[in-house]
């Protein structure tokens, strides 16, 4: 049995249970806005396990989605962030506030006529409230689809000091009446205060292609630094409604790719090199990245390269730091099995089974019994 596949399967099995048990209901939040002189409402979803991780801080994922799409997006984000090796880190999901505009009709958002006020409310009232109320890391993402993709593009152009990553899926640029695309060709630059990532995709409607290409050309003129990354995607051959689903996966994988590096680059210096690498990312993401699972991944990488002594020694040191974690003993056993040290693996599995029994974790007990049977 492939040991990495087994561990992945085990993690996913545990996570199915976790997600099924988690309360995915969106919380209703309201604030009194001095800018609009209204009581503004928006929704928020906390990551699974938020209450049990008092020392953990989370990026804020701002979405313009509403109606039926918010449920789909919430589920997708939770699925794409529910294990350590997932493409998105766990996030606090936040909807934009519901502002009542005078003379608003269904074309107001599409025309970009509300962006300036909404941006001011988000920057000066909503995000400070979220930062003061919840454990946020400071890293921020904003996404939008179709006509609701205009606002993230407006934030990129005018408030790049507020947001890090911009996921803009199939924006209906042909409907914009605010001069948004033309403004991208002005004399401006991204704020130097943050790392920035942009994912901009073209959908199926032909009237948007010219504006998409114009926006792409203007954005490519901006000064590029190691702190910026732009990605443009032509999804015109895909179903229009699949654009945000496909785009979220691709954008997330690119944005957070540095959190899942090729661990062979750490083989020579080991834990020292890995620690140095992730410490550099602490500034980008605004939080202290937990190295436990990263060290486990390095151990697996050693094992896959037949460097079993390094793999086992590293896993034992990780277990010693947290000797009550059932999965760590299972992972140690898998490395030992890969190294054909079955006697040591049996001892590790015995320890894992004791912990699983003590916590009444029937899923883990079942997996451990199957592993023990394979060793006999």
Please characterize this protein's 3D structure.
By secondary structure, the protein is of the alpha/beta class. The chain has 13 helices and eight strands. An eight-stranded mixed sheet has the order 1-2-4-3-5-6-7-8, sandwiched between helices. Helix 1 runs antiparallel to helix 11, helix 9 (292-304) packs parallel to helix 11 (326-338) and helix 10 (308-321) runs antiparallel to helix 11 (326-338). The two termini are 14 Å apart.
Brief overview:
The protein has 376 residues and is an alpha/beta fold.
List keywords for this structure.
Serine Threonine Protein Phosphatase 5, Tetratricopeptide repeat; 376 residues; eight-stranded mixed beta sheet; Rossmann fold; alpha/beta; disordered N terminus; 13 helices; 2 domains; single chain
């Amino acid at each position: 049995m492939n040991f990495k596949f087994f561990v992945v399967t085990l993690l996913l099995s545990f996570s199915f249970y976790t997600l099924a048990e988690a309360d995915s209901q969106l919380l209703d939040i309201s604030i009194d806005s001095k800018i609009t002189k209204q009581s503004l409402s928006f929704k928020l979803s906390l990551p699974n396990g938020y209450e049990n991780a008092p020392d953990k801080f989370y990026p804020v994922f701002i979405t313009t989605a509403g109606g039926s799409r918010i449920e789909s997006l919430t589920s997708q984000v939770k699925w794409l962030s529910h294990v350590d090796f997932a493409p998105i880190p766990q996030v606090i999901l936040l909807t934009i506030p519901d502002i009542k505009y005078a003379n608003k009709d269904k074309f107001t958002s599409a025309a970009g006529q509300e962006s300036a006020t909404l941006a001011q409310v988000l920057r000066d009232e909503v995000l400070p409230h979220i930062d003061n109320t919840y454990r946020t890391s400071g890293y921020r993402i904003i996404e939008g689809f179709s006509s609701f993709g205009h606002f993230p593009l407006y934030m990129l152009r005018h408030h790049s000091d507020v947001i890090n990553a911009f996921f803009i899926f199939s924006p209906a640029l042909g409907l914009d009446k605010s001069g948004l695309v033309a403004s991208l060709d002005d004399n401006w630059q991204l704020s130097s205060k943050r790392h920035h990532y942009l994912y901009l995709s073209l959908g199926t409607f032909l009237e948007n292609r010219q504006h998409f290409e114009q926006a792409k050309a203007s954005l490519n003129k901006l000064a590029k630094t190691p702190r910026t990354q732009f990605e443009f995607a032509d999804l015109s051959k895909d179903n229009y409604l699949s654009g945000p689903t496909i785009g979220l996966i691709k954008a997330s994988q690119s944005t957070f790719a540095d959190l899942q590096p090729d661990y062979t680059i750490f083989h020579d210096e080991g834990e020292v090199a890995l620690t140095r690498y992730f410490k550099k990312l602490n500034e980008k993401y605004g939080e202290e990245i937990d190295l436990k699972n990263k060290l486990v991944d390095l151990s697996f990488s050693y094992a896959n390269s037949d460097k079993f002594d390094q793999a086992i020694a590293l896993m034992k040191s990780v277990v010693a730091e947290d000797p009550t974690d059932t999965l760590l003993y299972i992972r140690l056993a898998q490395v030992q099995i890969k190294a054909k040290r079955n006697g040591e693996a049996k001892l590790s599995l015995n320890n894992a089974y004791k912990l699983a029994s003590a916590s009444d974790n029937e899923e883990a007990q079942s997996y451990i019994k199957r592993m023990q049977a394979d060793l006999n």
